[in-house]
Amino acid sequence: MDARVLQVLVAPDSFKGSLDPLAVARGLADGWRRARPLDEIRLIPLADGGEGTLEAIKATGGDWIELPVHARDPLGRPLRATFLRRGEQGIVEMASASGLSRLAVDERDAMAASTFGTGQVLAAAIGLGVRQVVIGLGGSATTDGGSGLLTALGARFLDEQGKDLPSGGGALERLAAVELDELSPVLGEVHLTVASDVTNSLLGERGAAATYGPQKGADEEQVARLDANLAHYADILERAAGRVVRDESGSGAAGGTTAGLLAIADRFASFQVRPGVDVVMELTGFDEALAASDLVLTGEGRVDDQTSFGKTAMGVARRARATGVACICFGGGVLPEGIAALAEQGAVVVPITERPMSLEEAMSAGAAPLTRAAERAARLVTMLGAGR
Amino acid sequence: MDARVLQVLVAPDSFKGSLDPLAVARGLADGWRRARPLDEIRLIPLADGGEGTLEAIKATGGDWIELPVHARDPLGRPLRATFLRRGEQGIVEMASASGLSRLAVDERDAMAASTFGTGQVLAAAIGLGVRQVVIGLGGSATTDGGSGLLTALGARFLDEQGKDLPSGGGALERLAAVELDELSPVLGEVHLTVASDVTNSLLGERGAAATYGPQKGADEEQVARLDANLAHYADILERAAGRVVRDESGSGAAGGTTAGLLAIADRFASFQVRPGVDVVMELTGFDEALAASDLVLTGEGRVDDQTSFGKTAMGVARRARATGVACICFGGGVLPEGIAALAEQGAVVVPITERPMSLEEAMSAGAAPLTRAAERAARLVTMLGAGR
User: Fold this and answer.
1) For residue A88, how many other CB atoms are within 10 A of its CB?
2) B296 at interface of A, judged by CB pairs closer than 8 A
3) Tens-digit pLDDT profile for residues B54-100
4) What is the mean pLDDT of residues B290-300?
5) What pLDDT was estimated at residue B309?
6) Alpha-carbon radius of gyration of chain A
7) Distance of alpha carbon A19 from its chain centroid, rounded?
8) CA B346 to CA B352: how far, in whole Å?
9) C-alpha closest to that of B44 among B80, B89, B8, B75
10) What is the pLDDT at residue A244?
C-alpha cells in the first residue's frame, strides 16, 4: 500500500456534446480513487467562458440570481434569465440569454438575432448593486456587433429618420447614427471583465460574420451582407466613441460583441478582455489549489492542433509547469499534434478511447471510459513506487 | 533526469491482422525509449504456437533449416518448407506447411486438406538428427485427425481392400484399418512437445469439425460428415493404438492432429501437450529475462473476455505477478472484462486507440499509435518520481 497521500487537483473542461465539466471532474476523481483511495482530491471544473461556464464556476461556490423581470432571447421572446453571484462578483454568461442553444436549429437567424437579452442581464446585475462583472462570451446566436447589448445599457442606434433600428445585424445596414449619451452613468462604477478565447477581429475573412456566421444560420450571401453591415456599424460607432476597435484582437468575438464593448470601454471604472479559462481559474481559486497539489488532472473532449490556442487543457498545463506540478490531460479524441503541444508543457495526454468505435458510440458512453482511464493512469503513476 | 535505469522486458504477442510480435515489440521499445532513453530494454516477442510462432522465436535466436526435398501443402502441391533449429531443439510450425494461409480463400477444402506436409517436416527434422522437437499447432487448413501427419511418419490408413486411403478427412469414412507397425523406430529417441492453446476435444458440438470446420471451408453438411468420419477414425485408431484419445482436452486441435499424435504418444521418448505461450516462453528464455527485469511490457490486438483463457498477455501477467515484476499490457482493442481480468493479476491495461475511428483505420495505422502509447506509459510511470 502506498504510504504517501497525494494532493490531486481535478480541473477539466467539458467533453463537449457528451459531459459537462463537473461530470468530467467527477468521473476522473472516481477512477483515481479506485486506484488510490487515500489521495486527497479537489474538484475545480473549468470552462472557457462559453456555454457551461456558469455551471463550472457554481461547482466551487456562488448563488444563482434570477432576474426580477423577463429578459429577451436572441429572437426577442421572453426568457427567465439568471446570473451567478459569487462574493463581490457577478458573472453573466452570454450563451445563457443570447445563445445558439436557445434556438431550435430551424430558428437560427443570423440577420435577426440580437444580444439585447445579454445586455438586460448585465444591466440587471448592475442594478442589483454588482460592481465587479464578468461576462463570458461564446456560443452566441448573434452577429449584431453587440449593438443589442449596448442598447440595453442605454445606447441608441438610429436610422436616417432618427428612429431606433430593429434588432439584429441585418438591420445595421440602415444605421445612420449612434448615440452614447444615454449610457448608464453607473457603468463608471463597474469593473467589467470580458472572458473570451476568440482572437478573430471584427471584419473580413477571419471576421465575426465569415468565421462564425455559417454556424449561426447565415448563408454565403448573408455572411457577405453581415460583414458589410458590421463594417458600416464600426464606421459610425467608432466615430461616436472616438476609438478604433475593429482591428483589435478578439473584437470579432460573439458576433462582434467585444467590438461593441471595446467602443464604450472608457465608460467603465475598468475594462479588460481576458482568456476565458484564465478568468474562470481566477474565480475558482485554481492557482491556489494548484500550488497546494502534487498533481493536476485536466481534460477536454478533443486534444488536437487547436489545443494550443488558449483552450483549457493548455492553460492548465502551462500553469502546472510554471508551478512545478505534474499534469495529466485526458482526451476524448486525441491527435498527435495535441499530444506534442501538451508534451512541450510537460503534460502527458491520456486518450480515453479503449477500442475502435464510432464517434456516436464514444459520445454516448458516459463517464465510464473516463473513469477507467483515470484509474489506469493512477495505477501507472503508482506502479514503480511513485507516490509511496 | 531519472538516475535509476530500469530493466524493461518487452514481450508482446502479435496484433493480429496488423503487426507481428516483433513489430509490436519494436514499436513499444521505441516509444519507451523516447521517454526513458537510459533504460535497458530487451525484446522477447511471443506467440501462442500458431502462425508466426517461428518468427517470434527466431527473433531471439535460431537458424532456418530448409528441407532437402519439397514437402506437400494442404492440397498435396509441392512446397518449400522450413523448420527452426535452435540449439538442441527443432521447432516445426503446423501453419507453415499445412496452414490456411497456404490456400486462397476459394481453395479451402476441409474434406481434402491434409496434414501430410507437416508430417514430412517433422520427419525431415528427425532425419536431420533433431531429437527434441516442438510442433506448434494452430492455423491449420485440415480436419484429418492428423492421419496425414502419421502417414508421413510411417503409419498406414487402409480401406476395405487394404489400399492406402486418399488424403484428407473426407476419405476417412472408408477407413477400415490402421497399421502402426511401420512407424519410424527413431521416434523412440525423440522428445516431442505439442504447443497448443486449444482445449476442444475431438468430437461433437465443441469438436474439431464443428468448431473450426467452417473457417476451413466446410459447409454444414460437411461439418457433420467430418465429425462422423473423425468418430469412425477414432474407433479404429484407438483400437490399433490401445489408447482412448478422443476425450482428452485439446485432442481436437488443428483438425484433430493432437488426437492422432496422442494415439502414438508412447512411441516417443517423451510426449507432452503444453500451452503455446508456455513453450515459446521456455524456448526464448522468457522467465530468466523476466526475473532480471523491473517491468515487463506485453500486448495483444484484443484484450477482451477471452484474454483470460491462456492467451499471451494473461500468461505474461501471471508470471510477472509471481516474479514480483510490474506489468503493463497494451491492447489494440480493449474491453472492460479484459481490463478486469488482467487487473486481477496486477497488470495495467493501456489501450492504444487515441480517438474514435473505424476498425479498418485502426488496423492500418501501423506501429505509431503503439509507440505513442508506450511513450505515454513511460512518462506516467516516471511522472511522480518513480524509477528515479
Assistant:
1) 9
2) no
3) 988 998 899 999 998 899 999 999 999 999 999 899 999 998 899 99
4) 97
5) 57
6) 22
7) 16
8) 19
9) B8
10) 96
Residues 6 or more apart in contact with residue A166 via CB below 8 angstroms? none
pLDDT reading at B183 higher than 90: yes
Q: In what helix (H) or strand (E) does residue B8 lie, and over which residues does it extend?
A: strand B7-10
Tell me if B192 sits within 8 A of B270, measured CB to CB: yes
pLDDT band per the 50, 70, 90 thresholds, residue B388: very low
Decide if A325 contacts B385 (C-beta within 8 A): no
Grid cell at residue B365: 495505422
Residue of chain A nearest B295, judged by CA positions:
A384
Q: Taking residues B44-58, report their average pLDDT.
A: 87
Hey, is the C-beta of B35 within 8 angstroms of any chain A C-beta? Answer: no
Report, as ranges of residue numbers, the positions in chain A whose pLDDT lies below 70.
1-3, 307-310, 386-388
**Partner A contacted by B376 (CB < 8 A):** yes
Distances (CA, A) of B53 to A271, A346, B91, B262, B276: 70, 40, 9, 22, 9
- B387 touching A (Cβ < 8 Å): yes
- For B199-237, write each residue's pLDDT tens digit: 899 999 999 999 999 999 999 999 999 999 999 999 999
The grid cell for B375 is 511513450
- φ, ψ for residue A228 (rounded to 5)? -65, -40
Q: What's chain A's length in residues? A: 388
Please enumerate in sequence order all residues whose Cβ is within 8 A of that of B259, keeping only pairs 6 or more positions apart, or say none: B145, B146, B202, B208, B230, B234, B237, B245, B246, B248, B251, B252
For A77-87, letters b (16+ CB in 10 Å) and e give: eebebbbbbbe
- Which residue of chain A comes nearest to B361, CA vs CA? A356
Cα dihedral B64/B69/B72/B77 (nearest 10): 120
- Single pTM value for the model: 0.84
Cα dihedral A150, A155, A160, A162 sign? positive
Annotate A42-91 with DSSP letters as a single string: EE-----SSTTHHHHHHTTS-EEEE-SS-EE-TTS-EE--EEEEETTEEE
For residue A374, what is its C-alpha cell?
Answer: 483515470
Residue B55 backbone phi and psi in degrees, to 5: -60, -40
ipTM score assigned to the predicted complex: 0.81
Cβ-defined contact of B383 to A357 (cutoff 8 Å): no
